[in-house]
Amino acid sequence: MKEHSDPNEPNREWLVPEVAPGERRLDRFLQSRLPRLSRRMWQELFAAGKIRMNQRIAAKGDSVKSGDRINVNLPTGLDALPLADPSVRFTVPYQDPDLLVVDKPGLIPTHPLKVWERGTLANGLVSRFPELRGVGPEPLEPGLVHRLDTGTSGLLLVARQAEARERLKKDLARRRWTKKYLALVRGRLEREETITAPLAHHPGDRKKMMTVSADSPPPRGRVYRAETRVRPRQHWPEATLVEVDLVTGVMHQIRVHLAGRGYPVIGDRLYGPENDAVSPLATGRHFLHAHFISFDQPLTGERLSCSSPLPDDLQEALASLGPALD
């Protein structure tokens, strides 16, 4: 087999002289040649028609034989995943040689879903901190230890090297972190509550989660234990500002738990009202901000804490409600 293009170029080409027994399917052949690309990336490339064999668009199940010419058109070279995007703005409240605490703005996705996407936090991270490339098993999630929803702002941990990431992930799984959020919800929450409803993927909408009970439809896949502690901080006639302790970390947990108790996050059109008359926020932005995080430095053991003030758009949303009742 001969590879005809520079490894840093987006266009890759192979002329196949012989095929190993385990590489007779095109998708397996390509995965063995470009192992840094995840299965999801290969699915996207096949779906987008970016892979050709003998000058025709190829399918992942095509058979590879001696003499075939295979072309892969990547939007960027393998050493630039994800694409560096210096236009993505974010602040870094804390950094040391092992990790970053990053303050993610609202309406910016945490990482791209496709190789050619720009405008995500991960694109900005590799632009400012190129050493993050290759930290962690997913090339499109360089150094990320956890995520925030696109419409959520606030603090995220990013590892700058593999050992730090592994230890941070273990501490997160063991619930050694403290993560607190501020949320503005519809309705009047009078007292502190602990919500423990288990969560699962919604059977009719793959983008949604749901609480699981005896009356709910059969869930899709695994059922996750979830615990959310909520404390009211300020009240308005139609809304309450709450502080949330995230004990577990299931997808959309805070949003689903609060909506299930009758207090949807303002601006959340996925779990709250589609036309949220109370929300002055931009479409896709909900009033949820990761404002505090505390954790052990993974190599020294020192306890570190960071906080983040409410960003301007959430401050303006509060101001639009008028004076608080308490």
Structure notes:
The chain is of the alpha+beta class and 326 residues long. It has six helices and 17 strands. It has helices spanning 26-33, 39-47, 121-128, 162-173, 253-260, 312-320; strands at 2-3, 11-15, 51-53, 56-57, 69-73, 91-95, 99-104, 153-159, 178-186, 193-195, 199-201, 209-211, 220-224, 228-236, 239-246, 288-296, 303-307. Strands 6, 7, 8, 9, 10, 14, 15, 16 and 17 form a nine-stranded mixed β-sheet that branches. Strands 1-2-5-3-4 form a five-stranded antiparallel β-sheet, with no helix packed on it. A three-stranded antiparallel β-sheet has the order 12-11-13, covered by helices on one side. The termini are far apart.
Mean pLDDT: 89
Number of self-contained structural domains: 3
Counting DSSP E segments of at least 2 residues, the number of strands comes to: 17
Kindly, what is the distance between the CA atoms of the first and last residues, rounded to a whole number of angstroms? 73 Å
CATH C-level of the largest domain: Alpha Beta
The main sheet comes to:
9 strands, mixed
Q: What portion of residues belong to β-strands?
A: 25-35%
- By CATH, the superfamily of the largest domain comes out as Pseudouridine synthase
General shape: globular
Radius of gyration of CA atoms, rounded to a whole number? 23 Å
Continuous helix count:
6
CATH topology of the largest domain: Pseudouridine synthase
Order of helices and strands: EEHHEEEEEHEHEEEEEEEHEEH
What would you say the CATH architecture of the largest domain is? 2-Layer Sandwich
Main structural class? alpha+beta
